[in-house]
Each structure stands twice: as structure tokens, then as C-alpha cells.
Design goal:
The structure is a single chain. This protein is mainly alpha-helical. The protein folds into 2 domains: 226 residues, no CATH class; 213 residues, no CATH class. It has 21 helices and 4 strands. The strands form 2 sheets. It has a two-stranded antiparallel ribbon with strand order 1-2. Strands 3-4 form a two-stranded antiparallel sheet. The chain is globular. The two termini are 16 Å apart.
């Protein structure tokens, strides 16, 4: 489909673009530029409009913009997750004292731009489009990380992010160039056809090795976004140094978008008629990365004293859990990833919402700040405990159901490889429970330095309640969400 005929299918992205331009124009008016209320209202209207526009489409499978982008239910599902995460971030930053009024309009415009880039990233079925959208997301993320201009830690984190991102970007581009050299195209569908032709007969070992290297180099860019080991090293420093509302966004939106792109990249480019082509051992590679990622994330989280760094390593571990589902190369595996992504949005952003509420009142990021929180704010203590126990996969919370589906996908394969991955997943869940429960213990049995009450702002309280509802409800009645995750399994390939 040509560019002009494709325009109606990207109306949500066009709406986002229009509102970004509107915010830039508003920022030119001095009186309005520093009005958080007006800018937040415009941003919220933008995101709600985009969500409804995505929901209103009939999500039949289409290739648009000369086969650069795919329009399907899988992309729509993850776009909604990204837009909800962006909406929660905009609301969170309204009450945050980490972003100055003079920079608020720029923060909103760049955040919406990052969300726009993620929407294109999720839909990419051409390696050039994949690379460009990834770079667009990365550049906006670098800027947002450094938004605390008076904080040296923020600048240091942004610099590390840029350096790591630049190196990985070069590696990814190198891998993409190999694909173009082999097949004369960057279209994933044509690359798959080329691979089928080459590997339909015995191939030279050198050719196999070259295709494997090109695939892994391209995977590096996606792995950087989801913070899979060994591309995770930027993660803890950036989480700690970035403004906390953006850290919350970073912990959910790019990670889940990257996971969606990984699924699309592999299933579109390397799977034909239910079989893996090109003799690349993707199940073994992803299974090994899953085990290493979740193990390193959980073990590193054990010694952390800063809540944001702990959540960074926790996020790395959850990336490993998601990779368990991807490694199965099955419909139930994709379903489990979809469902886990939806639940992860609510429970992980919920933890950060409580962290932001406490940080706003106390200014402390140390875990010791949470000692005796139950005495200072029973509501925040209870909410944080629920979110943490859900992340640990404890019933009757939504995280338990999400992990149940992931492990079901592994057990359903019934092979030694997947039994081994499942065993490591269970062991890691026990380790994760230890450090999540340790925080809950501090909250209820720790001795606070002061007994002064912590009063959460009304906005943060409503955000926390809005996130608590699905975490509690989906642990008891999850079928509607499971149906949505099931409907989103269709990937254009």
C-alpha cells in the first residue's frame, strides 16, 4: 500500500504528532508555558484521543507505507499499553517536584514524541524503519534522562546511556547491513523468503555463521531496549539518575515495546509454517538469555540500598521472565507474553507511583526511608505491599496469574530444555520473593526515623488506586484481560 493510501491507518500517530506541535506552540506563550494544568490537560486529551482511535480501528492485518509498517491486533495491543503508560507518566509528572515549571512543556512534548516513536517501533516490519524508530526513541530518552539539569547524577546517567546506546546502535546497523548485502532488501518478509531459499538445501558453515552473526547483531539493538543481559549495564544508573516519573515510564514502555518488536522480528523474519528457518537455535539462545537475565537481575537486586536501583534490577529480572514466553515459539507463549505485559504495566508502574508519592514528601530514595511506613502512611504501605507481592507472583494478585501463564507455556512444550528453564524460573521467583518481602518487612516492622505522617497528594492517591484495582481484580477475575491478550496474538507474518 502506498504512502497516501496508508495515511488513514496511522490516524492515532497523526493525532499524537498534532498534539506535540500544539504543545510546542503553547510553549511559545510565556504565560501558558509554565502552566502545568493547561499542558497536562492538553497531553491527557492527546493520549486519551489516541487510545480511543487505536481501539476504534478494525484490526485486520495490513501492510502499509510500502510494507514498512504492519497494522494488526498485536501492534494495537502494545500501542494501548504504551499510551496508557505515557498517560500515567504525564499525570505523575504534574505533581512531581523533579521537573521545573520552566521545563514542563518541553518534558511533555519530548515524552509524547518518545511515545510516538514507540508506536512506530512496535509496527515496524522493515529493518530500516525498525532502526530509525529505535533511534528516535533512544534520542528522546537520552534527553529526558538528563532533565534534572542541576543534578550531576542525572547528567552522568544520560552520558552513560548515550555511550551505551551509540555502541549498540552501531552493532545493530552492522548486522542490518549484512542482511542488505545478502538479500538486497531490508523487508523482513523478503529476508525470510531469501533465508528459506538458501537453507532449503545444505548450506556452507560460513554462511550459517554469517547469518547467525547478522541476526544476533540486529538483536543487540532490541536487547538494549529491553535491558537483556549483556545489554543491561546502562539500566541501574539511568533508573537512579533520571527523573522518577520518566524512570517509571522507562521501566514499562520501552521494555514492553522492545519485547513486542523482538516477537515480531523473530516470528516475521525467522519462522515459516511453524518452523524456525536458517538453522538459528533461537529457542536455546533465548532460553539461555532468559536464565542469565533473570538470575543476574534478581541476585544483583539483593544488595541494593536505593529503591530505584533495586527496581532497575527487578525490571531486568522481569525481562528474563518475558523471554521465557518468547523462547517457546508457540501461540500459548505469545499469549503469555501479552498477558504478562499488560499485568506488568499495572504492578510495576504502581510501585513507582508509591515511590514518587513518598519521594515528593521525603526526598529520600534509600530503602531505609520506607522503615515504619505503615505508621506514617497506612495507605501507601498497603498499596506498595500489594504491588511488590504481585511482582513476586504471590496469589491472589494479578502477578501470580501472569507467571502461571508463562510457566504453563514452558511446561506445555514438555522438553528437557523448557523444563530446565522453568526450574530456573521457579528458583528466581523464590529469590525475588526474598527481596520484595524484605521491603514489606521494613515497611511494617522497621523503626522510622520520624513518626511524621506522609500525606500523599490527591493525584498520586488516585493514580495508585487506579493501578491497584486491576492488580487486585485480575488476580481473581482475569478472563476478560486474557481474552484481549488472546485476540492480540495475531502477528502479520
Amino acid at each position: 500500500m502506498n504512502a497516501f493510501d496508508s495515511l488513514p491507518y496511522i490516524i492515532p500517530e497523526l493525532a499524537l504528532t498534532g498534539f506535540i506541535i500544539l504543545i510546542i506552540l503553547i510553549s511559545l506563550m510565556e504565560k501558558v508555558k509554565q502552566s502545568r494544568l493547561i499542558l497536562t490537560a492538553v497531553s491527557v486529551l492527546c493520549l486519551i484521543s489516541a487510545i480511543f482511535l487505536v481501539l476504534s480501528f478494525n484490526h485486520t492485518s495490513l501492510l502499509i507505507f510500502r510494507d514498512m509498517l504492519a497494522k494488526d491486533s498485536f501492534a494495537a495491543f502494545f500501542k494501548i499499553i504504551i499510551l496508557i503508560a505515557t498517560l500515567l507518566t504525564v499525570l505523575s509528572v504534574y505533581d512531581s517536584n523533579e521537573i521545573k515549571d520552566s521545563l514542563f512543556s518541553e518534558f511533555c512534548a519530548i515524552l509524547l514524541s518518545c511515545s510516538l516513536g514507540l508506536c512506530f517501533f512496535i509496527s515496524s516490519v522493515n529493518l530500516l524503519m525498525l532502526y530509525l524508530s529505535l533511534e528516535f526513541v533512544s534520542v528522546t530518552s537520552y534527553v529526558l534522562t538528563a532533565f534534572k539539569r542541576d543534578d550531576g547524577l542525572s547528567s552522568e546517567a544520560a552520558l552513560k546511556y548515550v555511550v551505551y546506546g551509540g555502541v549498540v546502535s552501531g552493532v545493530m546497523l552492522f548486522g542490518i547491513s549484512y542482511f542488505y548485502g545478502f538479500f538486497g532488501t531490508l523487508d523482513l518478509f523478503l529476508i525470510r523468503q531469501g533465508l528459506e531459499e538458501i537453507f532449503s538445501q545444505p548450506a556452507e558453515p560460513v554462511l550459517k555463521l554469517t547469518v547467525l552473526c547478522a541476526s544476533l547483531f540486529t538483536f543487540a539493538g532490541i536487547g538494549f531496549k529491553i535491558a537483556v543481559v549483556p545489554f543491561h549495564m546502562w539500566n541501574p544508573d539511568v533508573y537512579q539518575g533520571a527523573p522518577t516519573p520518566f524512570t517509571a515510564f522507562l521501566s514499562v514502555a520501552p521494555k514492553l515495546a522492545g519485547m513486542a518488536v523482538l516477537v515480531r522480528f523473530i516470528f516475521t523474519g525467522f519462522v515459516a509454517d511453524g518452523r524456525i528457518i536458517a538453522h538459528i537455535p533461537w529457542p536455546e539462545i533465548l532460553g539461555l538469555l532468559s536464565v542469565i537475565t533473570m538470575s543476574l537481575g534478581n541476585l544483583s537486586a539483593l544488595n541494593q540500598k536505593n529503591i530505584k536501583r533495586l527496581l532497575a534490577y527487578s525490571g531486568i529480572a522481569h525481562c528474563g521472565y518475558l523471554l521465557m514466553g518468547v523462547s517457546t515459539f508457540s501461540q500459548i507463549g505469545i499469549f503469555s507474553v501479552n498477558f504478562y505485559a499488560l499485568v506488568y504495566l499495572f504492578m510495576n508502574f504502581g510501585v513507582f507511583a508509591v515511590v514518587m508519592a513518598i519521594l515528593r514528601e521525603t526526598g529520600g530514595e534509600s530503602i531505609d526511608t520506607y522503615a515504619g511506613l505503615s505508621e506514617r502512611s497506612p495507605f501507601l504501605a498497603a498499596a506498595l505491599s500489594v504491588f511488590l507481592l504481585s511482582l513476586a507472583g504471590i496469589p491472589p494478585f494479578a502477578g501470580f496469574i501472569a507467571k502461571f501463564y508463562l510457566f504453563s507455556a514452558l511446561i506445555h512444550k514438555a522438553t528437557p530444555l523448557y523444563y530446565t528453564i522453568a526450574l530456573f524460573g521457579i528458583l528466581n521467583s523464590v529469590i525475588a520473593l526474598y527481596y520484595y518481602a524484605a521491603i514489606v518487612k521494613i515497611i511494617y516492622f522497621g523503626k522510622p526515623d520520624t513518626t511524621a505522617p506522609i500525606k500523599s497528594s490527591p493525584l498520586y492517591a488516585w493514580i495508585i488506586i487506579a493501578l491497584l484495582i486491576p492488580v487486585l481484580a485480575l488476580g481473581i477475575y482475569w478472563q476478560p484481560a486474557a481474552r484481549k491478550a488472546d485476540q492480540a496474538m495475531f502477528i502479520t507474518h
